[in-house]
Amino acid sequence: MIETQDYKQVLGAFPSGVTVVTAIDDDGRLVGFTASAFSAVSMEPPLVLICPSLNSDSYPVIKRIGRFAIHILGQDQQAIAYRFAGKGRDKGEGIDWHRSELENALINGSAACLECHIWEDYPGGDHAILVGEVQKLWCGGSEVDPLLYCRGKMDQLPENLRALARAS
C-alpha cells in the first residue's frame, strides 16, 4: 500500500513549472484550478494534458463548455497559484484577466498561455485526464520568468538559469 504522504513527497521531488487552468462559467465568472499535472502529448496535432480533480468546481464547467486556457505562471504570480489551489467559487475575484477571442479567460502577466479545446476526456482515478488541442498560444519569451515548484515550495528561476535563458 502506498502512503499518501510518501507519494506526495516523491512527486514533489520532481521540479516543475506552475500552471493555472481557467475557463469562464455560465455567469461570466473566471473559474479555474492550479495544476501540477500538465504535459505536452503530441506535436501534430498540438496536444497537451491536464488532470483536474473530479471534485474540482471548475472541471464540470470546462467539460460542459469544451475549452480552457492553461497559464504557465510568471515568477511574481505565486499568490494566484495559491488562490486557485484552494476550493471555492470566488477564486477569480481580484484577478487581472480578460476574455480572449476564443472565449477563454486569460490571466494577465503569465509567462505563457495555451488556449485549448477538449480533444479527449479520460478517467484517471480521482482525477480526469483532459487532453486539449492547442488552438492558440502565447509566450512572453525572456520578458517574464516562470514560477517553479519543488518539494512543496514555489520560487523563481535561480540566477544562473535566468542568465542562461537570457543569453540564448
Polypeptide structure, described:
With 168 residues, the protein is α+β, with helices and mostly antiparallel strands. The protein is 20% helix and 41% strand. It has four helices and twelve strands, in the order H-E-E-E-E-E-H-E-H-E-E-E-E-E-E-H. Strand 4 and strand 5 form a beta hairpin. The termini are far apart.
Major sheet description: 7 strands, antiparallel
What is the count of DSSP helices, taking H or I runs of 4+ residues?
4
Mean pLDDT: 90
Dominant shape: globular
What structural class should be given to the helix and strand makeup? alpha+beta
Strand order of the largest sheet: 3-2-6-9-10-5-4
Radius of gyration: 16 Å
Low-confidence spans: pLDDT under 50, at least 5 residues? none
Could you estimate the helical fraction of the residues in percent? Answer: 10-25%
User: How many β-strand runs?
Assistant: 12
Order of helices and strands: HEEEEEHEHEEEEEEH
Instruction: Please give the alpha-carbon distance between the first and last residues.
Output: 46 Å
Strand content: 35-45%
Produce a short descriptive summary.
The chain is of the alpha+beta class and 168 residues long.
